[in-house]
Structure formats: structure tokens, C-alpha cells
Amino acid sequence: MAQEMEHTVSVNFGCPVAKTVGVIGGKWKGVILYHLTTGPRRYNEIRRTLPNITQRMLTLQLRELERDGIVHREIYNENPPRVEYSLTPLGDTLRPLLDFMRDWGIFYGEQGCEPVATISKSGKHFC
Question: What domain of life (predicted)?
């Protein structure tokens, strides 16, 4: 009985896919990263491209991406201070994955499929 339980509860936390999803998974991180592939962006620029994200959630997601070494936060010594976010060299290695996800999303849409999660209450897409 104990052996049977081990097989049904076993989780491999060393799985590379689980590690990747742990860093870039969730509703917003992939979209934030995709928009940073075009170059550095200021906070409000990112916010405008994602009108359905709350300010708190965007800040949280950017902090997590920065903590994980994927996004760099640059503070310029100006008045008022200017802050830009960009991909780090490690974050830039995600570019092929993000491009593939974009291409797959286009393919998925061409199949007549539309995930409910990408549509706001007003019916507008947020990506």
C-alpha cells in the first residue's frame, strides 16, 4: 500500500519544464517578456500594452522576473527618475521560446480556437 501511494503522489521538482514554468509561468509573465523582446520599456509603456493587468500585479510580476535574473531594472538619475525594464542576457535566451509561443498562438487562432482567458470582459484582446 505504501509503495502504491509513492507512485501516485510522486512529483519531480527537478523537471526542467517545471523549472521553466516556475520562472515564466502564469497569466502575465510570458506576455510581459514578449513585449520586452522589442527593447527596453518604461513601466507605463508596459502597463499601456496590458490594460487588464493591475498596477500591483505588474509590479509583482516584474519584481519576480527581476529576482529570477530574467529582467533588468535600470533607474536613471534624472528628475523625475526614469525606470526602464529590459531583458537580461539570460532573459534574452527566452526569445526563441517566446517567438514560438507567438507563432503557436497564431496557429491556434487559425484553427478557429480562442482561449477564453485572452479576452477581456469588453471582448478586446490584451496581447
Answer: Bacteria
Dihedral of the alpha carbons of 63, 96, 46, 57, in degrees to the nearest 10: -40
- Rounded to whole angstroms, the Cα distance separating 34 from 78 reads 28
Helix (H, G, I), strand (E, B) or coil at 73: strand
Q: State how far the Cα of 117 lies from the Cα of 17, in Å rounded to an integer.
A: 22
Whether 98 and 33 have beta carbons less than 8 Å apart is answered as yes
Place of cell 527537478: 14
CA distances from 75 to 8, 41, 43, 78, 83 (A): 48, 12, 11, 9, 5
Q: Which residues pair with 73 in a beta bridge?
A: 85
Cα(87)–Cα(69) distance, integer angstroms: 9
Q: What is the pTM of this model?
A: 0.76
